């Protein structure tokens, strides 16, 4: 029988994509000057959160000096700063920061992962690399039995989620756009909290908060959470 622990072990030991293996290990060896004294994770990154989650947040891929450094998805980079602040404001995280795997962060009602599990060059995974990770997404979907909403951070994540549930035609991406999977969850779209979106004002904190208010409502979770 599959489990989250077995899945995490299989993800972190994967070496299916030579380009991604070479890049993640090169980044881990050379490091960024600000993190020169740290030991980088340098491996694929598993999902993280509440195994009984009603909301699944799906991103693109680990950041080279974020999750590829810390070993936890969306942890240690500015996209993650935005995400976990929003989850905390929505009552889905016990704290607004995510800096390392031992920082005490816990999630309630939400699971976070990425369509591709290794940091890609230029933050742009190839279609073949996305497809190579699909088996991990399929296992994750089966384990996350209670998911009612998938928050797709960006068009790439929406494409991965639509393929996972066999949605045809593929839903059109737009901030706060929704697509209901027959006998499945609602796919809820959001601009990705990347610096290209947050620095330019394309995505504001108010806009991001609206996504998670809607996700909480669709998931049937209480709006005021401990």
Please characterize this protein's 3D structure.
Helix 4 packs across helix 9 (205-219). It contains 9 helices and 6 strands, in the order H-H-E-E-H-H-E-H-H-E-H-E-E-H-H. The chain is an alpha/beta fold and 226 residues long. Strands 1-3-2-4-6-5 form a 6-stranded mixed sheet, with helices on both faces. The mean pLDDT is 96. It has one domain (4-219): Uracil-DNA Glycosylase, subunit E (3-Layer(aba) Sandwich), CATH 3.40.470.10.
Average pLDDT taken over every residue: 96
- Give the percentage of residues in beta strands: 5-15%
The coarse overall form would be: globular
Quaternary structure of the protein: single chain
In DSSP terms, counting alpha (H) and pi (I) runs of 4 or more, how many helices? Answer: 9
Total domain count: 1
Share in helix = 25-40%
CATH class: Alpha Beta
Radius of gyration: 16 Å
Strand order of the largest sheet: 1-3-2-4-6-5
What's the β-strand tally? 6
End-to-end separation in angstroms reads: 33 Å
Q: In terms of topology, how is this protein built?
A:
Layout: H1 4-12, H2 18-30, E1 48-49, E2 55-59, H3 67-70, H4 78-89, E3 110-114, H5 127-132, H6 134-143, E4 149-153, H7 155-164, E5 178-180, E6 186-190, H8 195-198, H9 205-219
Parallel strand pairs: 2-3, 2-4, 4-6
Antiparallel strand pairs: 1-3, 5-6
What descriptors fit this protein?
Uracil-DNA Glycosylase, subunit E; 37% helix; single chain; 226 residues; 6-stranded mixed beta sheet; globular; 9 helices
């Amino acid at each position: 029988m599959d489990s989250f622990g077995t899945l995490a072990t299989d993800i972190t030991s994967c070496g299916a994509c030579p380009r991604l293996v070479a890049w993640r290990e090169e980044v881990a060896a050379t490091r960024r000057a600000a993190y020169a004294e740290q030991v980088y994770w340098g491996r694929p990154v598993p999902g993280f959160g509440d195994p009984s989650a009603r909301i699944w947040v799906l991103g693109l891929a680990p950041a080279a000096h974020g999750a590829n450094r810390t070993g936890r998805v969306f942890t240690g980079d500015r996209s993650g700063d935005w995400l976990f602040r929003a989850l905390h404001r929505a009552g889905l995280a016990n704290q607004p920061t995510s800096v390392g795997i031992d920082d005490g962060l816990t999630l309630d009602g939400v699971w976070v992962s990425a369509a591709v599990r290794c940091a890609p060059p230029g933050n742009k995974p190839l279609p073949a690399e996305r497809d190579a990770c699909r088996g991990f997404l399929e296992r994750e979907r089966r384990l996350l039995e209670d998911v009612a909403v998938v928050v797709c951070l960006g068009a790439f994540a929406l494409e991965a989620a639509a393929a996972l549930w066999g949605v045809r035609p593929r839903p059109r991406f737009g901030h706060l756009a929704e697509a209901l999977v027959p006998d499945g969850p609602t796919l809820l779209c959001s601009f990705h909290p990347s610096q290209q979106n947050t620095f330019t004002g394309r995505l504001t904190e108010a806009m991001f908060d609206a996504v998670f208010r809607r996700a909480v409502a669709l998931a049937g979770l209480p709006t005021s959470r401990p």
